[in-house]
Amino acid sequence: MTEADAKEALNDKKNDKNSGVSDEGTSEQKDIETDNTIEDSAASTAESESAETGASGVSNDSLHYDPKDSISWPINGNVIIPYSMDTTVYFETLKEYKCSPAMVIEAQTGDEVKAVYESKVAEVSSNPELGNYVKLELGDGYTVTLGQLQDVKVALGEHLDAGQVVGTIGEPSRFYSEEGSNLYFAVEKDGFATIPWRDKEDRPYKQKSPTISKIDIVGLLHYILTYIFLNVLYNPRSILAHYNLY
Q1: What is the Rg, in whole angstroms, of the alpha carbon atoms belonging to the chain?
Q2: How many C-beta neighbours within 10 Å does residue 105 have?
């Protein structure tokens, strides 16, 4: 073997060795990439489960409300405006009769408002009518809205036990100024106003056009009789005209 052949054989041996190292490095790199992919997938799954569970660590599917179960009152007080979707009720501040999808309960500023059932905070917001309000998700399509609040003590997504403080009563909005400080307490089933514990068949009430109530009829009769008395019976001109004296 010549010197040139020996050098060529040596170079081939080095190339084979480098190739083996390269292949080994490529294999290790592939293993690392595979491990990273598995870790990313696990992290993505964990984030997805966390999003479904919420900040409270309780899954939405775990909430369940049976209308046969009783729920606690959010506050102690007299009902100023009752729930009424079949007939109209009078709103003192608005000076009008209309259907009421919620109960307005008398309260004092600073009174604590409590969760009526095991629930999850689905919404924390405010509007001109309700002021600050919190919407609680009870499960099975049922939600509870608590309005006219001052200090809200819960956070979005938080899991609440029955009786846990949600917030405190604030000053009434301009829609309820004559009624005074109060709690707006509404229950909905799949977006429709209802009171499940008073409706055995659990039929959600869809919004209806206002109907004439007994109070409306009495008021109308009073107006008619007053008009007749003042303008017909008690009017001197009508009396004189009756006797052909006018």
Answers
A1: 36
A2: 23
pLDDT tens digits for range 93-122: 999 999 999 999 999 999 999 999 999 999
Question: Largest Cα–Cα distance of the chain, in whole Å?
Answer: 158
Q: Does the reported pTM lie above 0.85? A: no
Q: In this structure, are strands 159-160 and 119-127 parallel, antiparallel, or unpaired?
A: antiparallel
For residue 53, count CB atoms less than 10 angstroms from its CB and return exposed for 0-12, middle for 13-18, buried for 19 or more.
Answer: middle
Going 237 to 241 to 245 to 246, the CA torsion angle's sign is: positive
**C-beta separation of 163 from 72 below 8 A:** yes
SS3 (DSSP) at 29: helix
Residues in the chain: 246
Contact 76, 150 (CB under 8 A): no
- For the chain, give me the number of helices (H) and strands (E)? 3, 12
